[in-house]
Amino acid sequence: MPHPFDIEEIFPDDGDHPVRLPRRQAGNSPQGVAVTLLADYTLRTRAWLPSAAIVALLAESHVSLAGARTVISRLARRGVLEGSRQGRRSSYRLSRSAAVSLSVGGSWVMAATTTTQPWDECWTLVAFSLPQERSAQRRALRGRLRWLGYAPLYDGLWISPHELTPKARAQLTQLHLGAVTVFRGRRVDLDAVVGRDPLDAWDVAAVAAQYESFLRRWRPLLPRIIAGQVDGAEAVRARTEVMDTFRRFPTLDPQLPLRLLPAGWLRGPARETFAAVYDGLADTAERHVRAVVARFADGTYADVRAHTTADLLAGVCAAAEAADPASARR
């Protein structure tokens, strides 16, 4: 299986205007922290935040002053942020393209870790052959297959228990027209010494270890959340970290049918723990972000609004535009 940080982008490319979201790194990168912070409290409204407030919030996540300023500049160049200046005061907000991409990605993460589809015991096989000189295209194809939940059973033969969706079909066609063949069918059992179990394409034990690590990290915090013992700055940091960690699971856990997995699979408990942390700290974190923003600008900043896992599943941007159609034109 891939290392948890091998997938390059935070979310799959989606939307009419994809933006260059920060690449994954081992640990929480400053750019990733900044995107998560802004998304967690302004994705619904695309509120403008003073750059000084963004720097102050990043400082609470142990990003240096110089590092925070560099992050803002780089995210603006990537098209993730758009800026505005009034006198000596500069402000930034998520670009519409970034907001759409992050909203789609958040919904995808929630759906991928919630939905359990019945299985017809058939496998989808993607076979491809590319010459050595097309190594970049081969890497791109493999990366896309990873995003779609496939894994390599053999070199050039990737499998998934799920049907090929129209969207996946279109993506594979665009990447390598004429270089890919797709089949779907049942496995024929051979002698155990000769045949390879399709499940061997995934390192199930390694996925389980990631779930166990996640639960060890976050379950001890739940009693303090219930008791209201987590203060504002810690609440913001915890929501940022738990989101940055949990959103990787759809790329690690390919949503294999539960009947193929060991008993007591921890996908459900991990999602429940994520929701307990992320939702349980939402109000405390929102109040803290508003307080920090208020130090650098006039007004109460009611547009700073935390969202929940239910909001993410529904699509935060979609919910905002349904409530206020004019927001789609601003």
TrEMBL record:
InterPro entries: PaaX-like_central, PaaX-like_N, PaaX_C, PaaX_trns_reg, WH-like_DNA-bd_sf. Transmembrane segments: none annotated. GO terms for biological process: DNA-templated transcription. Pfam families: PaaX, PaaX_C, PaaX_M. Residues 202-290 form the Transcriptional repressor PaaX-like C-terminal domain. Residues 31-96 form the Transcriptional repressor PaaX-like N-terminal domain. It comes from the Bacteria. Residues 117-189 form the Transcriptional repressor PaaX-like central Cas2-like domain. This is Transcriptional regulator, PaaX family.
